[in-house]
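re the bet — no i am not wrong, look at it urself. input seq straight from the record:
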Amino acid sequence: MAERIPLVLVPGLLCDGALWRHQSEHLGEVAAPMVADVSARDTIAAMAQAVLEQAPPGPFALAGLSMGGYIAFEIMRRAPERVVRLALLDTSARPDTEEQRARRHALIDQCRLGDFKGVTTRLLPLLIHADRLRDEALTGEVMAMSVRVGKEAFLRSQAAIMGRPDSRARLGEIRVPTLVLVGREDVLTPLEVNREMAERIPRAKFVVVEGCGHLSTMERPEAVTAVMRYWLQA
């Protein structure tokens, strides 16, 4: 059996290893998956450094969803020689708009007033497809994941996200096989934002997952895993 490539999976805001459970369990024949933990850091730069410290020595494939994508861009700036394949899922190379920053500040205020659980409830319609909001298995898993991540990590992550740089100018420098994947109904990092990345990264593959919102790896796990398997082997 050929040696498996290390695959470093980076979670998004309020997410942990459950975000990547299906991929971790079903890509083992072509890769050696591990989920990075960035919950203790409060800047994208520090999160990227944490991922590099946790990753196995040598080259690896890198996949990030949402905030994980912001971290992936920073890793590509810091240590491009370490990354041999890149997957950007439901993310953006742009900095926050004023509207996005205002929404983050409102969630931070709600959290600091003691309503951390209400933050996830408020975010759910933005995280998953509208048709899945009555899917108790999915919504329960998303809620449980946020509880495990916790209030303090949420506050650190929001600060990091708001302080992230604009990554668009350097997308053309990415030379590794790159996958850009997005749920068609993703309202947080919509189709056009992901298409923009795919158009600026040389030879990137752009994939749209139908009937899917922002948390594509959990909403359509089989489809996302199949695409990632092709990305790892192509």
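see?? The CA atoms of residues 25 and 33 lie 8 Å apart. told u. also The chain is about 45% helix and 15% strand. so pay up
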